[in-house]
Amino acid sequence: MAVQPILKYPHPLLKKMAHRVAALDEPIHTLVQDLIDTMQAGPGSVGVAAPQIGVGLRVCVVDVSNSRHGKDNNHGLLCMVNPEIISRSGLAVMREGCMSVPDYTGDVERATEITVRFLDSRSGQQREVAASGFEAVAIQHEMDHLDGLLFLDRIISVSTGLFRRKQYR
């Protein structure tokens, strides 16, 4: 269990659809811990998905509790296997960044409230979480990675919504 290197755009694995996980076994628990370690080591990171470390499985972790945007409204560390959004509402534009696209940020429109169903890798139980605000955005961002999408694919306007990052934080 260790910090893993993050694949950078335009690596072809970032554009592939991830496969469902068949069983919660030791390799999946190791993968989840690697994702947690990688997220915590990333500057300002609030999530990471398995495809970002070169693993084509539907696994991601999100934790916005240490972010100024999410510290007051969060569910703590979410370790999600085979997540699916079962409802969404509201829309807002937010600036997003990504460890796989370290030199840019962009304005992306996302649902402001979602309900996500997933297998919790820590408890082994199916869970449903109703998330809102920054946490909802972070979950959607990480789940996009599982579908081979980057925030670059969702920018509201390439001419006015993409920004070169001055410094990665």
Automatic annotation (TrEMBL):
Reaction catalysed by this enzyme: N-terminal N-formyl-L-methionyl-[peptide] + H2O = N-terminal L-methionyl-[peptide] + formate
Biological processes per GO annotation: translation
Record's cofactor remark: Binds 1 Fe(2+) ion.
Enzyme Commission number(s): 3.5.1.88
Top-level division of the source organism's lineage: Bacteria
Binding, Fe cation: C98, H141, H145
Keywords: Hydrolase, Iron, Metal-binding, Protein biosynthesis
Cofactor requirements of the protein: Fe(2+)
GO-annotated molecular function: metal ion binding; peptide deformylase activity
Annotated catalytic residues: E142
Job description of the protein: Removes the formyl group from the N-terminal Met of newly synthesized proteins. Requires at least a dipeptide for an efficient rate of reaction. N-terminal L-methionine is a prerequisite for activity but the enzyme has broad specificity at other positions.
Family recorded in the similarity comment: Belongs to the polypeptide deformylase family.
Stated name of the protein: Peptide deformylase
Source organism of the structure: Trichlorobacter lovleyi (strain ATCC BAA-1151 / DSM 17278 / SZ) (Geobacter lovleyi)
